[in-house]
Write a structure and sequence with these properties.
Layout lengths: L6 H10 L13 H16 L3 E7 L3 E3 L3 E10 L11 E8 L4 E9 L4 E7 L7 E8 L12 E8 L20 E6 L4 E2 L4 E8 L9 E6 L4 E6 L5 E6 L7 E6 L5 E5 L3 E2 L3 E6 L6 E8 L9 E8 L2 E9 L4 E7 L6 E8 L5 E9 L6 E6 L3 E2 L4 E9 L9 E8 L13 H6 L22 H11 L7 H5 L14 E8 L11 E7 L5 E7 L5 E7 L4 E9 L8 E4 L21 H30 L22 E4 L2 H4 L5 H5 L6 E4 L6 E4 L3 E2 L2 E2 L3 E4 L2 E3 L1 H5 L6 E7 L15 E6 L16 E7 L27 E9 L5 E7 L7 E8 L5 E10 L3
Parallel strand pairs: 2-8, 10-17, 26-48, 40-43
Antiparallel strand pairs: 1-3, 3-6, 4-5, 4-7, 7-8, 9-11, 11-14, 12-13, 12-15, 15-16, 18-19, 19-22, 20-21, 20-23, 23-24, 25-27, 27-46, 28-45, 28-47, 29-32, 29-34, 30-31, 30-33, 33-44, 35-42, 36-37, 38-39, 40-41, 42-43, 47-48
Protein name: TonB-dependent receptor plug domain-containing protein
Main location: membrane
GO cellular component, one term: cell outer membrane
Length: about 850
């Protein structure tokens, strides 16, 4: 009796007492108006983003590369979101709670191809691949994308580490969760439960429920992945305890939630009717106000679907919600009581089959070794009509890369399910696999037991919406604070200069001020690979009193909110072939690299040294220039003291803060025009320039009249260009770090490498080596055209094993799809 939804019981009960009723959408009620306005405002100020990562596989050896493609979505509409353009990817050791690898991927039209090279030093184990945007940090880490990966070693050190046991107790964790949220005296309710073991994985269970008198009330047993439910009618003054059988056969007690003397219960039937979600409401409250009303709100990803008023004068009511009004995905049903406080809540999944179909068609039924595979990819909408989509595709050796789980996560299950729930979801692909006829029943059960914490109603209905702390990044950022020594106080309104020095000797120069709280930020930057960053506070001698910190140098904390689910758990014997073949291939790759290095060492290249252009000087030869050295800077307080009397036509009037500079002939009808000051290519005012130490200056160039025209009207008074030693292209920024300066090496966007796949149509020397690659082909950016077609080709390897193809992707509107198929390789 516990396998089916008890719709018949509820319907017969409500019909018998004549309390069946339906309610329509209402928007002219004062509370509903207020609720809708605040809910809309909340979602406008705190929109959502979602991220998904498709990796070529789930099992790797150290020394291999994880090939990946990131997708960024608008979390509310699921449309392709092009706002955030930086995707952060971490490889997390969940047991040590440390980030082992980190990468920043560039997002172009929301797609982020990239890779992670696994160092040989990594320990074997289960890891989490975690991905998020900076803006997603405004929300709990539980909504970051996570994927479980298995990493093995070639040296055989693949035993499960002792630290891998997250829990010391063997006692099962069993939760009892009344549907809608509470148990109420005299009202029959469904109680869902979920059991997990000390490793965080599901555990099938059975047992029974006793009341305080030790009478058996009902039996219980799980029906799917440690989950199940039973019905219970709480009696007045009773308490209830569930007894669940443990792995050793013993029975352990688990208390059910306390029974409320008065309240409302919500029961939802989302299965028996294809057109409506039916919400049954019952209560045992009494009210002196015959007009008292409760309110039912249905919303999906911030979009309100229905708002209905339910009279408190009726002890039981039915609200029918048309499924046609809902988008596909998780809907949240919330009942507000007569005092407008949230009383009950339930999640349901509305299926609309809004997913693309991906076809993978090969030109032959089977292939020989090293034979070309011509693959045609087609994408159609649910109606079968062609639709353009962007896909990523992996072709794997099916034996060397066994599927961890045929019901593993995909872009479909993540976008529609996992990204809106907290906690571990085991086998999320089960609920989207048409082979499982019971998947909708089991998904409904999952939503009775799974967490939901996207927001709290107190936040929505409160007067203040939590501020957005982490901004949307349209490029890389440098943010931090300027403090006094020992962080005793903030340093506000400090002028800062930034120098970004790349490996190719090109440099960027930026300038700005810290705010009144000492915070600073340089945004929308674009640099690739490791870059040296120098930040200096420009405040003259006061530089020694400044301490600059950079947020990007802080190691983020790791909070494990989802326990890794890894059904492989080191099946070493089954992976022996994969380890053997991959180790051999890695040795061949290393030998080729060594041979190449020997060849390079024997070649001497003679060429004229290329003179690097100084990007700070957009002009040619200046009209005048003065080189700063120990002789002309000795005893001088600022740069004006150095140039005074040394450059013809440049006049310095006054001294200190009141000093003024004029280049002879620079005047208009209003009088003399001051020159434009440029510090390492950045326009600055005179006061900022006076704060630059004379010891830091390399030279000063002066442009007069026509020479200054390159700076436009700003240079009508001439130009004085100050070039610092640190700004020079050939200057080693690490040579000296004066007080008030921060020097750091920061990673930029990860360079995107092209996946190497040999083409055997033309003979090459390297083709003599054996080919037993695990990933034969990886294509992260396949775009089908308006006819929904695209073609790719690759070659089979030397292995006489079938290939597994997996394609995932989305349309621009965010309709996801995933397809897998096997390609047969002949075993002669």
């Amino acid at each position: 009796m516990h396998h089916t939804i008890h719709r018949t019981t509820i319907l017969s009960l409500l019909t018998a007492i004549g309390l069946l009723s339906a309610f329509r959408f209402i928007n002219n009620d004062d509370f509903i108006k207020q609720l809708l306005a605040k809910f809309q405002s909340y979602n406008q100020q705190r929109p959502l983003e979602k991220v998904y990562i498709h990796t070529d596989r789930s099992i790797y050896l150290t020394g291999e590369t994880i090939w990946m493609k990131g997708y960024i979505f608008d979390g509310n509409t699921h449309g392709i979101d092009t706002i955030s353009r930086v995707l952060y990817v971490d490889l997390v050791d969940p047991y040590a709670r440390r980030i082992r690898l980190r990468s920043q991927l560039r997002a172009t039209t929301s797609y982020s191809p990239g890779q992670l090279a696994l160092p040989d030093s990594l320990a074997a184990g289960t890891y989490l691949l975690r991905a998020y945007t900076n803006y997603m940090r405004n929300f709990p880490e539980a909504y970051f994308f996570t994927k479980t990966l298995t990493i093995l070693r070639t040296d055989g050190a693949n035993t499960k580490p002792a630290s891998a046991v997250l829990g010391k107790s063997n006692r099962l964790d069993v939760q009892f969760l009344p549907e809608g949220g509470q148990l109420v005296e005299g009202l029959e309710a469904r109680v869902a439960f979920k059991a997990v073991n000390s490793s965080g994985h599901n555990q099938p269970v059975e047992g029974f429920v006793l009341n305080a008198k030790k009478d058996t009330v009902t039996g219980l047993f799980s029906t799917h992945l440690g989950m199940g439910f039973f019905t219970l009618t709480p009696e007045v003054g009773q308490t209830y305890t569930g007894f669940v059988k443990q792995a050793d056969g013993s029975l352990e007690p688990y208390p059910l939630p306390a029974v409320q003397p008065q309240g409302v219960i919500m029961q939802v039937d989302n299965l028996s009717n294809k057109d409506h979600v039916r919400v049954y409401l019952r209560h045992n409250k009494t009210s002196a106000d015959p007009a008292a009303m409760m309110t039912l709100l249905a919303q999906t990803r911030g979009r309100v679907i229905q708002a209905a008023k339910v009279p408190l004068s009726k002890k039981g009511s039915l609200v029918q919600l048309p499924k046609a009004d809902f988008p596909e995905g998780i809907a949240q049903l919330t009942l507000f009581d007569e005092t407008n406080k949230p009383a009950c809540e339930r999640l349901v999944f509305v299926t609309k089959n809004e997913q693309i179909n991906i076809g993978l068609s090969t030109d032959k039924a089977s292939y020989k070794n090293r034979e070309k595979v011509e693959l045609t990819i087609s994408t159609t909408n649910p109606a079968g009509k062609p639709v353009a989509a962007n896909l990523s595709l992996a072709a794997l050796d099916a034996r060397q890369a066994p599927e961890a789980d045929s019901n593993s996560a995909s872009i479909v299950s993540h976008l529609l399910l996992s990204s809106d729930l907290t906690g571990t979801i085991e086998q999320p692909g089960y609920y989207f696999n048409a082979m499982h006829k019971d998947r909708w029943q089991q998904l409904d059960l999952l939503l009775m037991t799974q967490g939901w914490r996207r927001f709290t109603w107190t936040e929505v209905l409160g007067d203040t919406i939590p501020p957005v702390k982490y901004h949307v990044e349209r490029g890389l950022s440098l943010t931090g604070r300027v403090l006094r020594p020992n962080q005793k106080g903030i340093a506000s309104k400090v002028k800062l200069t930034f120098v970004l020095s790349r490996r190719d000797s090109t440099r960027d120069f930026l300038a700005g001020d810290s705010d009144e709280f000492g915070n600073f930020g340089a945004y929308d930057l674009d640099f690739t690979d490791t870059t040296t960053v120098l930040i200096q506070g420009v405040k003259g001698k006061a530089n020694r009193d400044l301490s600059i910190s950079l947020d990007q140098l802080l190691t983020p904390t790791v909070t494990i909110t989802r326990i890794p689910y890894n059904p492989l758990e080191f099946r070493y014997d089954e992976l022996a072939e994969f380890i053997k073949r991959t180790k051999e291939y890695q040795e061949i790759e290393r030998q080729i690299r060594r041979n190449g290095e020997v060849l390079l060492q024997s070649v001497t290249v003679k060429a004229k040294k290329y003179q690097e252009h100084d990007s700070r000087t957009i002009y040619g030869t200046p009209d005048a220039s003065i080189k700063f050295d120990q002789m002309n800077t000795a005893g001088r307080m600022n740069i004006l003291d150095v140039i005074q009397g040394r450059i013809a036509g440049v006049q310095v009037i006054g001294n200190g803060l009141s000093a003024r500079v004029q280049i002879r002939g620079a005047a208009n009808f209003s009088g003399p025009v001051e020159p434009l000051f440029v510090l390492d290519g950045m326009p600055m005012d005179l006061q900022a320039v006076l704060g630059v130490s004379v010891q830091d200056v390399d030279r000063i160039d002066v442009l007069k009249g026509p020479s200054a025209a390159i700076y436009g009207s700003r240079g009508s008074g001439g130009v004085i260009s100050i070039l610092t030693k640190r700004g020079a292209p050939d200057y080693d920024l690490t040579k000296d770090v004066p007080p008030g300066t921060l020097l750091a090496k920061l990673p930029g966007y990860a360079p995107v490498r092209e996946f190497y796949a040999p083409r055997y149509d033309t003979k090459k020397p390297e083709h003599v080596r054996p080919d037993y690659r695990t990933t034969l082909f990886w294509a992260p950016l396949i775009q089908t055209n308006a006819e929904g077609k695209a073609t790719v080709s690759f070659y089979t390897s030397d292995a006489k094993t079938n290939l597994r193809l997996r394609a995932e992707g989305v349309t621009t509107s965010g309709m996801p799809g995933m397809e897998q198929r096997l390609v047969q390789v002949e075993r002669e």
